[in-house]
Amino acid sequence: MQRTPIMNLGVIGLGRMGQAMARSLLRAGHRVVVWNRSRDKSDALRDAGAVVADQLGDACHGDAVITMLADDAAVTSIVCGPHGLLDSLGPNRGIHVSMSTISPALVHRVAERHAERNQHFVSAPVLGRPAVAEQGKLSILAAGKAELIDVLRPAFDALGQRTFVIGDVPEQANLAKLSCNALIGTMLEAVGETLALVTKGGVAPKAYIDVLMATVLASPVYQPYGEPILERSFEPGFRVPLALKDVELVLSAGKELAVPLPIVSLLRDHLIEAIAAGDGDLDWSAISLVAQREAGLVH
Prior knowledge:
Blueprint: E1 8-12, H1 16-27, E2 31-35, H2 39-43, E3 51-52, E4 64-67, H3 72-80, H4 85-88, E5 95-98, H5 104-116, E6 120-123, E7 126-127, H6 130-134, E8 138-143, H7 146-151, H8 153-159, E9 160-167, H9 170-200, H10 205-214, H11 223-231, H12 240-257, H13 262-276, H14 288-294
Parallel strand pairs: 1-2, 1-4, 2-3, 4-5, 5-6, 8-9
Antiparallel strand pairs: 7-8
C-alpha cells in the first residue's frame, strides 16, 4: 500500500482553528513549524510535536505555509507587511495556502503580489467549527492551479474529510466560503423566527427543535446548533462579531457584482442587534434570540 507523503509545513495563526488544524497535521505525521504573534499559543503546541518558530520567516521554508488568520487586517499585516510572508517565501519554492475567511478582493490582491514574486499561492478556506478541525473533518474549498492543489493533497487529507476544488482563480474559493456562511446564518435566523412563532403558539420548543433536526435540518452542518438554541446555551465556537465580519464581506461582494442580497442584509442587521443586546461574546447561533426578544419571549 502506498504511503501518504509526509510534508514539511508551516502554520501561521494559532487561534482556536489554527491550533486545531496544526494538531491534526501533527497527528497525521507531518512535520509542522508554528508561529503566532503571541508566543504562548505557539508554545502550547510544542508538546504535540510542533517546532516553535522564533520568527515568522522560520515557518516559511517548507513545502507549504498555511495562514489561518482572523480577518483582512490580520492577513494584510502578516502577509504583506514588512518582513511578512511575502518577504519570507522564496520564489518557486513553497506554497502559501491561505485558509482564512477573508474578502475575495484581498485574496485577489495577495495572489497578484505572489505572482509578481514568482511565488505559489492557493486559497483554501474551510467549513467547520474548531471541534471539527480537531477531528480532521473539515470541508476544504480550494482554488488555484491544479498542480499546486495536487501537491497539497496530503495536508488537505489530514485536515478534512473532503476537498472541493472550486476553480483555478483563488478568490473564487473565498466567495464560495462566504456564501456558505451566509446561507448557514440565514438558517439560524429562520430557526429563531419560527421557534418564536411555535413557542408563542403553545408548542413545546424541544418538540419543534426535534422535528427540525430529524427532518428539514437533518444535516451535519445544522445538527450542532439544535441543542444550544433550545437550551439558550451559546458557548462560542464562532462568535457573533466574526459572523458579522463574514456577512459584511458577502454584502460587499454582492455590491461589487451587482447582486442584491436582501435576506443577507437582514441577517447583518440582526447580528448588529445581537451585539447591541450584549450577545457579542456568544456563538452566532445566539442570533436566534433576536426574534424571540421581538416576540416578547426573552427579555
